[in-house]
Design brief:
By secondary structure, this protein is an alpha/beta fold. Helices cover about 20% and strands about 25% of the residues.
Length: about 250
């Protein structure tokens, strides 16, 4: 399914073209990686339907989701998102792995899982994949058992997770200069509260979900004031919109 650029003007573009040559690492500040959020939401701002984000987007959203993973050194997500969405190896398609090579990136992005209490099920496919390298950002002193993936830990002081410190360590110790964060809502809010987000990619689906249990795109921790953003571009596929913002 092609994406039609609304701002700036056409012609139609595929997800491969849209998410190519973004060179996010070149935009990184000196002290931490460049961080972009990638979220999908219904028109009324809900990030899940029946507990999952997967049913919200269309084919173009799924295509763009996977191509954006070819643009960053690391992919970050909260433990709940990793468990519910059943994360596995982050880039499995050989063509997308080749694309990462063309972008000057490692074939596999570093997987970064944020789990304050280390409540991550051992049967998550990502942890069972021997090709995956996973860094767990946690306030716990525990360890995940039975993992075939290579798992390392960035631990905060006490039981808290300091996302700013974790991002600095990802840059200093792992060479990470760009991070694609895929949520969930509580992690999004924590990053925004600490002013650690540089861009937002938002897929806006032509759906409504007024259910009382549906999660918003940002939840759980207050954001200190309104966050202003500049629109970079708008794309359309069918009745869904794809927006890219740069935070001021």
């Amino acid at each position: 399914m092609d994406l039609q650029r609304l701002e700036p003007a056409p012609p139609p573009l595929g997800a491969d073209h849209v998410a190519r040559g973004l060179r996010l690492a070149d935009l990184a500040p000196a002290e931490r990686p460049y961080v972009i959020l990638n979220m999908v939401a219904t028109a009324d701002g809900r990030a899940t339907v029946d507990g999952r984000a997967g049913p919200i987007g269309n084919e173009a959203d799924r295509d763009l989701f996977h191509h954006l993973r070819t643009q960053a050194d690391a992919v970050m997500a909260g433990a709940r998102t990793v468990a519910i969405e059943r994360y596995g190896r982050l880039v499995r398609d050989p063509a997308l792995r080749d694309k990462r090579r063309e972008e000057g990136l490692a074939l596999d992005p570093l997987a970064v899982v944020v789990s304050g209490r280390l409540d991550l099920p051992a049967d998550v496919p990502l942890l069972a994949d021997e090709h995956s390298k996973v860094v767990v950002v946690t306030g716990s002193e525990g360890r995940l058992e039975g993992c075939r993936a290579q798992v390392e830990y960035l631990r905060g002081e006490g039981a808290t997770v300091d996302l700013g410190a974790a991002l600095r360590r990802l840059r200093d110790e792992y060479g990470v200069r760009s991070v694609l964060c895929e949520g969930g809502p509580a992690l999004n809010a924590a990053l925004l509260r600490e002013r650690l987000v540089d861009e937002l990619f938002l897929s806006l689906a032509s759906k409504l979900d007024g259910g009382p249990d549906a999660l918003p795109t940002v939840r759980g921790l207050p954001v200190d004031g309104v966050v202003d953003m500049d629109l970079v571009w708008v794309l359309r596929a069918g009745s869904d919109l794809f927006l890219r913002y740069r935070l001021r």
